[in-house]
Amino acid sequence: MTKDKGTIYMLPCPISEQRDVWDVLPKSNLEVINSLDYFIVENIRSARRFLSRAGIERKIDQLEFVELNEHTSKVEDVERMLRPILEGRSAGVISEAGVPGVADPGADIAALAHRHGVRVVPLVGPSSILMSVMASGLNGQSFAFVGYLPIKDGERARRLRELERRVREERQSQLFIEAPYRNVKLYETLVSTLSPTLRLTVATDITSPEEFILTLPIAEWRKRGVPEIAKRPTIFLLGI
Q1: If DSSP codes are grouped into helix, strand and coil, which group holds residue 130?
Q2: What is the structure's pLDDT at 70?
């Protein structure tokens, strides 16, 4: 008799650790988490810390963890992670922060699961991409997350002008991020490169007590100077 396949649960976790887990996640997620003993995670240490803070029923040492991140280079490694699920064991996928599978390596295991007929279930939780759009006042009917921009100054400026054209021609909001220690440099390039009338949203430390989200025309940002974004997780949005 063929054993039923397991299920993959995409498990959100808090973006910030300064809030209680269940202040930002629905408590119903705990029932699903408690049913699992196998986790595919971006970082084992942060996943263990999240589950401990969540107050799960099982002891952490009784759980099995495998890492799926930017260092997972072989397709065979991802296939090996899926094997227990094909044999009937369910698994939770956990990102380092926010929702897995969105700008996150967890998408690889979800894609493989679909190819093998494994059910993938997304649970509710905080996504900095969606939350920044919600609060921005920019176009939420059409928007694109474009990830990281080029690091070299000339290439970055050209990319920003290209994104501005897309905003104006397609009326599509453009979202992007940077390594926190390079936030200030990116901000300075933004305000010196883009049109004064273009609107820029700076969304920092989303869901934390120090959360900062503000949308202003580039001209107004130039008057204000650099906000407190150095080494703080930040997402930037452009719109009209």
Answers
A1: helix
A2: 82
- Encoded tokens for 207: 């869901």
Q: 191, 220 in Cβ contact below 8 A?
A: no
For residues 134 and 150, give the distance between their C-alpha atoms in angstroms, rounded to a whole number: 26
- Rounded Cα distance between 33 and 54, Å, is 9
Q: Which residues contact 10 (CB under 8 A, 6 or more apart)?
A: 92, 93, 99, 100, 101, 106, 110, 120, 121, 122, 123
Which residue from 98, 90, 103, 153 is spatially nearest to 123, judged by alpha carbons?
98
Decide: pTM greater than 0.70: yes
At residue 136, φ and ψ (nearest 5 deg) are -75, -30
E strands of the chain, at which residues?
A: 7-11, 38-41, 64-67, 91-94, 119-122, 143-148, 173-177, 199-204, 212-217, 234-239
In whole angstroms, give the CA distance from residue 144 to residue 174.
Answer: 5
Residues 45/4, Cβ–Cβ less than 8 Å: no
Give the mean pLDDT of the chain.
95
DSSP state of 140: S
Q: Which of 78, 81, 100 is nearest to 89 (CA)?
A: 81
Please tell me the predicted confidence (pLDDT) of residue 72.
82
pLDDT in tens, 186-240: 999 999 999 999 999 999 999 999 999 999 999 999 999 999 999 999 999 999 9
Per-residue pLDDT averaged across 11-27, rounded?
93
User: Structure tokens of 25?
Assistant: 């996640």
